[in-house]
C-alpha cells in the first residue's frame, strides 16, 4: 500500500455511485464533539465572568459559585480532548507550498471561484489556520488558567504575575472565540461540510471541489471501503 | 461622652455606643459603587467620610486589636506553631482580618535598633482595586462614608479581588469559597460604634472618626514626632488609590517599605486597568461584530455550493476515467 501524503488513516472512498468519501472516523467525530461541547460551555461560563452584562449566564450552570467551580474543570477536559484531536490531525495541517497561493488568492476563495485555486490536500490554509490558532490558544489558556485557578493553585504565581495571567487569559479567550466563530461560519458557508463531522462522509463533488488532491490520493489507492 | 444617635456615623471609637434606639445605616441607599454594576442608581444621601488612623509610633504590638477583631467578627484563626516570630498567625487569613506585622530595622543614621510594628489589613481605598476586578454583581460595595465591604452572599470565590488589590489583603476561604477582609466594622459603624480594634487599642494608636478629624489628628501627631527628632515622620494616605479610609502615621514616611513592605506608591495595576477596561469593552465588541457579521454574510451572500459538475468529475475520477495524478497546472 502506497504512503499517504494528503489523507489520514481511515479516509477512503465509501461508495462509488454516487461517490461518497469517508472523512472522519466515528472516534474522531466523538472526539471533535466532546471538544466542541467543552468549548461552548467554557465560552458561555467564561463570558459570564468576563462582562457584567453577561453575568446572568451563570444562571445556566446554577449560579456564580458553580460557574466559578465548573469553568476550570471543563478547561482541563477541553485541553486533553483537543490534545487527542491534535495528535490525529497535526501532520496534515503542516504548511505546504499551495497554502501560500491559496492565501494570496483569498478573494477567489471568498467568491467561491475555486477553479482558480491550486488543488489542495485534506485541509486548506484557512482550516490549517483554525487548527494552529486553536492549538496555540488552548495552550495559552490552560497555562494562564491554572495560574488564576484560585481553588487549587492560589499561590502558584505571585500577584503581579497573576495580573498578567488574567489579562492574557482574557485576550486569548477573545481570540479563540473569534476563531471559533470563523470555524463554525466557514463550515456552514461551505455547503456539504457539516456532514463530515456528523455522518463522517462528504460527497465526491465536495471533495473534488475543495480537496482534490485528497480525493485523487484516495481514488488512486483503489480502496472502496469495507465490504459492501 | 456618648455618641450622638443623630449623627450619621460615630465620631470616635472610645466612647460607649448610643443608648437610644437608632436606625442602622449603611443600607442599599448608601452604596456609591458596587462590583460589576456599572448602572448603579446614585445613593439617596451622602454620609460623612470616616477613617481609621493607625499611628505606628504609638503601637506597642500587644495584638489587642487582633483579639478584638476575631472576637467581634466571631472568627477562630487556626492555632499555629511558634516559628520564632512575633507574627501570629503567619499571614492574613480568611479568619484573621488584621495582623500585626513586626519588622526589625537598624537605622543607619542613628545606629539605633528600631522595632517597626504595623497593623496590616484592608486600607478601604477610595479607588478600590478589588471592586474594580470583581466579576460578581454586588459582591463588593463601597459606601458613601468610604467603607469598602464584601457582601458574601454575592461572592463567587474566584479570587479576582486578590488580583486587583494593590495591598495583598483579601483571602479566599477554602471552606466556603468566599473572600474575606476587614469590614472596618461596618456593622458597628452602622449603629454608632467605632471599629472593635480601635475600641480595644490600649495606647490609642488606633483611632477612629471622620476622615477630616483623623487627618487633623494625624497632622498633630506628625508635628509631635518631628519635634522629637523624627524628621521624616508623615502621613501615609496614598494618592494613587485616591486616598484611603484606613491610613497611617509613620515615623519613616519617606520609606514605607520598611514597615513590612508597605507599598511605596500603591495604585490599581495598569494590567488590571487594561484587563477590566479596554479588553472588556473592545473584546466584547469584537466578538459581537464577528457574530453579527457572519450571520449577515450568511443571509445575504451566496453560499459556496457543490455543483452537479463537481459530482460528475468525482465519479469519473473514482471510476478511473480521469487520471488520479495531479495535473501539472494544479501544482504551484
UniProtKB/TrEMBL annotation, chain A:
Recorded GO CC terms: formate dehydrogenase complex; plasma membrane
MF terms in GO: electron transfer activity; formate dehydrogenase (NAD+) activity; formate dehydrogenase (quinone) activity; metal ion binding
Signal peptide: none
Bilayer topology: Multi-pass membrane protein
Broad class of the protein's primary localization: membrane
GO biological processes: anaerobic respiration; formate oxidation; respiratory electron transport chain
Sections of the chain in a coiled coil: none
Residues that span the membrane, as ranges: 33-57, 69-87, 129-149, 164-189
Cofactor: heme
Highest taxon above the source species: Bacteria
Keywords carried by this UniProt record: Cell membrane, Electron transport, Heme, Iron, Membrane, Metal-binding, Transmembrane, Transmembrane helix, Transport
Sequence similarity: Belongs to the formate dehydrogenase gamma subunit family.
UniProt xrefs under NCBIfam families: formate-DH-gamm
The protein's name in its UniProt record: Formate dehydrogenase subunit gamma
TrEMBL record, chain B:
GO CC, any one term: plasma membrane
Positions contributing to [4Fe-4S] cluster 2 binding: 69, 182, 185, 197
Signal peptide: none
Residues binding [4Fe-4S] cluster 3: 122, 125, 130, 165
Entry-linked InterPro entries: 4Fe4S_Fe-S-bd, 4Fe4S_Fe_S_CS, FDH_Electron_Transfer_Unit, Formate_DH_bsu_Proteobacteria, Formate_DH_C_sf, Formate_DH_Fe-S_su, Formate_DH_TM
Region (Disordered): 1-23
Statement: the UniProt record of this protein carries the keyword Protease: no
Cofactor note: Binds 4 [4Fe-4S] clusters per subunit.
Domain of life: Bacteria
UniProt GO BP: cellular respiration; formate oxidation
CDD domains named among the record's database cross-references: FDH-N
Protein's UniProt name: Formate dehydrogenase subunit beta
Source organism per UniProt: Paracoccus kondratievae
